[in-house]
Each structure stands twice: as structure tokens, then as C-alpha cells.
Amino acid sequence: MSQTFCGCQQLVNLDLPKFDTSSLKYMSNMFQNCSVLRYLDLSSFVGSSVISVQYAFSGCTMLTSLDLSNFKASSATNMEYMFSECQSLKSLNLSSFVTSKCTTMKYMFYNCKQLEILDISNFDTSKVSNMDYMFHNCENLISLDLSNFNISSIRTIKNMLSNCRTLMYLNLKLKSFATTNSISTDDFMSNISNDLKICIDSSVSNVFSINGIPSSCDDICFQKNIKIIREQRQCIASCKEDDHYKYELMNKCFLSCPTGTFNSSTVEYLCEEKLICPNYTNIDGTECFNEIKEGYYLKDSNNKILDKCHENCKTCESQATASNTNCKACANEKFLNFGNCINSCKYDYDTDIQGNNICKCSEGDKCKECSEESYNFGLCISCNEDDDFYPIFDENENNTNNFINCYKNPEGYYLDTDIGKYKPCHSNCKVCSGEGTTENNNCDM
Predict the structure, then answer these.
(1) Which pLDDT band holds residue 134 (cuts at 50, 70, 90)?
(2) What is the Cα–Cα distance from 229 to 59, expressed in whole angstroms?
């Protein structure tokens, strides 16, 4: 399966929920340079037989979330460049990764600029010899716990954490980080924050020097359930305890849920990441839809975002206003009347082929077109000429709204077909076939 989707630069969504990976051995370059890929479902991927995963997701620059919680990679020996250049990646779940056979992790998370929290506490690095540039340019990474890292086989870690500008907490407090090997630590942590707190067990001999930073430890934020207030770089046992920074996302506290997240409906002050959907999503990003769902309308066609119609609408065209719910069809057995769903019609109603009850413009079928205002006067904008309804000549000349009344064969009038209006017969006529004269009244009755 190496390079299967490599270079698919028009691929936006990819759903592989039933993909059988039980015998899969090679995933190298599988999704490399899928540069506009936004949604990737690999929930079925187990990968226990996979040997190589290098460059697997490299260059997926638009991918924001990746769930590999079922992916084990227990046979993989090469993970270099696996997620490199995933510049938009904010959420990465590697909770099932088994890395005991891996020998190289260089550039693994290189240039993952949007990652703030990365849980790799389950990584077994006892056989890894190269970690060069592993986290280079992860410029939004706040904390990193390497407390289970074993570098007994390591040969080079050049620029491993370089350019991690916002890194505040780094846990290296472990005996397994001691080594007797001659390793290259050139610029291991160059261009980092001066406020970085590093935890190193000073009782262990042969711990290499990191840019002259002393072995001091303030590891409160690595304790279980301790949160980091992002803006203030402080530690707190619970976000709810703070007067202002109450909202929690990935062990950080915020004034409100950050962009791209929403407030959980089940847990107070808990922020959850919005879903990445292949077709449509609701405005909160909490649900995915395959099509425009009943009771919703397309609010944003570019991003395929749906919003709810008014509660009386079965379908609608746009958001409800104070004067109009903008419904196209009604729910709850109501009647559609110029975009509003009402309990009963002023006049009669018709039922369309979809079974929607739509109020008529007027009594009978005299109107072809009407508006909400003309409807209230019982008048029309145009007449239903197919059923011989026409206006009376001169009757509406002083009507500032241009509304008209429509008639069918009114007594004392004849239809002037040239102008499509009824004109009066001679005064002697009850029914006539045309305009009367002194010599001929043209009366039919």
C-alpha cells in the first residue's frame, strides 16, 4: 500500500472505515502530499503487521485532526517523517502506538506548527538511534512529557526540539535519559522560550548538558489532572477554580472556548474540538450530515455548514427573521403562507405533490401572483388568466400599491383582449360582446 494515495492533490475527504489492514505491511508515503486533504477516517486501521510508516502522512498540510487510536504499528521499524509538514494538525491521537521495534524517529513531527499538546508518554524508544529534528518547528507546542523516553541506543538528537518557541514545560525526569553513548546534541533546543521549565533528575549521572541549562525541576504541570492556563503560563488543579480561565481544552484553561471548538453540552466548561466532516456539518461542528438535513438550511456553501431553520419549518431558505421564518415547507401540520407557517389560512389552501399545505393568495383562484401585503387586502399582483380572471380597466388607476382585483365574466363588462382587461358595456346592456355605440349597443342581454 506504499504511495497508494501519494500526491492526490485534489483529494479533500477520504473515508476508509472498513479498510482491512490486518495483513498490511507497507504504509510508507501512503498519503504523502495530499495537500488539500481535510478529513481522513482511519478508525479501522490496526496496522499490527506494518513494517514501514515513514512519510505516511507527510505534507498533508490541511489535515487538522487525525485519530490513530486503534493503530498499533507494533512491527514498524521506521517512523521518520511520518507526520512532517502536517502544518494544520491540531489533534493527533497515538494512544495505541507500540514503538518498541522502531529504530528511527527523525523528523517525525517536523513542522507540525499547530500542535499544542502531544501525548507520546506511551512511546518505547529503547531501540531508536536517531531523533534529529523530531519536533523541530512545533512552534505552538506548550508541554512535552518525555518521561518514558529511553535513549540508551540514541546516536544523534540534533535540533530535536529546536524552534519550539512556546514550549513551557519539558519533562526529562527519568533515569533512562542517562547515557554513556557519545551522542550529538547540537542545537538540541535552540530558539526556545527563556521561560521554559525543564525537569531533569539531578541524582542521575551522565545526564547530558542541554545548552547549559541547569538540572532544575518544577514539574507541577506534569502531575495528573493539572491544567495550564495558556495565556498566563500558570498551573492550576482545575480550570473551574479560576475566576476567569474556566474553559478547558486539552489540559489548558481559556477565557472561552477557542476558535474551532465548542462548549460541551454534557460537561460544564469543557471545550471539544469541532468535527471534520466529509459532507456537511452543523454550525457548532458537533454533527456530520451526508446531505442537507430536514429542518436545516445551507448557511455557508463554501464550508458546507448547515444551520437550523425555525422550529415551524420542515425546510427553509435562510435564517428566520423577526417578521418571516423563511420556510419553504412547514412542520407540525401548519400552513405555508409567504414563508411563514401559520395555524390556518385566511382563504382556502392547496396541497402540493410533496404534501405541503400552501395558503391560496385569495378567495377562489383569481390571483396568479400576490404578495403578503396584497394578500391582506384580498388583492392580487397579477390575475390568473388561464382561468379567465382579468382586472377591470381604470379600476386601479389610483392604487399606489399597484395591487389589482381580478374578475371572471363580471356582469356589465366585456373583455378587451388587446389589453387583457374588462371594459364596461353600454348602459343598456347586462351582457355584451364589445363596446357599444349609439347605433349598436352590442348587447347580448
Answers:
(1) very high
(2) 31
Q: In this structure, what DSSP letter does residue 209 have?
A: P
Query: pLDDT by residue (tens digit) across 302-313?
Result: 888 899 999 999
Identity (one letter) of the amino acid at 362?
S
Q: Give percent of the chain above pLDDT 70.
A: 82
On whether both 290 and 258 belong to a single domain, the answer is no
> How many of the other CB atoms lie within 10 Å of CB of 445?
8
Any idea which of 251-255, 336-340, 366-370 has the lowest mean pLDDT?
251-255
DSSP 19-74: ---TT--B-TTTTTT-TT--EEE-TT---TT--B-TTSSTT-TT--EEE-TT---T
In this structure, the answer to whether residues 337 and 368 fall within a common structural domain is: yes
Supply the pTM of this predicted model.
0.53
CA–CA–CA angle 127, 132, 134 (5° rounding): 90
Q: Are residues 296 and 368 in the same domain?
A: yes
Say yes or no: 285 and 355 in one domain: yes
207 belongs to a structural domain: no
Answer yes or no: is 40 within a domain.
no
Distance CA 54, CA 107 (A): 10
Alpha carbon of residue 280 to chain centroid:
8
Torsional sign, CA 274, 5, 106, 49: positive
Cβ pair 328, 315 in contact under 8 A: yes
321 shares its domain with 248: no
Return the pLDDT at 432: 87
Q: What pLDDT, in 10s, does the model give residues 33-47?
A: 999 998 888 877 888
Residue 322 lies in a domain: yes
Residue-wise pLDDT tens digits, 58-110: 999 999 988 888 888 889 999 999 999 999 998 898 988 999 999 999 999 99
Q: Show the DSSP H helices in 70-120 as ranges.
A: none
CA distance linking residue 445 with residue 443, whole number of Å: 5
288 and 357 part of one domain:
yes
- 185-194, 349-358, 394-403: lowest mean pLDDT where? 185-194
Residue 350 sits in which domain range?
A: 280-377
Report how far residue 114's alpha carbon sits from residue 123's, in angstroms, rounded to the nearest whole number: 21
Contact present, 297 and 320 (Cβ < 8 Å): no
- The dihedral sign for the CA sequence 230, 235, 239, 245: negative
Cβ atoms within 10 A of the Cβ of 167, count? 23
Tell whether 182 is covered by a domain.
no
Asked if 151 and 183 touch (Cβ cutoff 8 Å), the reply is yes
Residue-level pLDDT at 49: 87
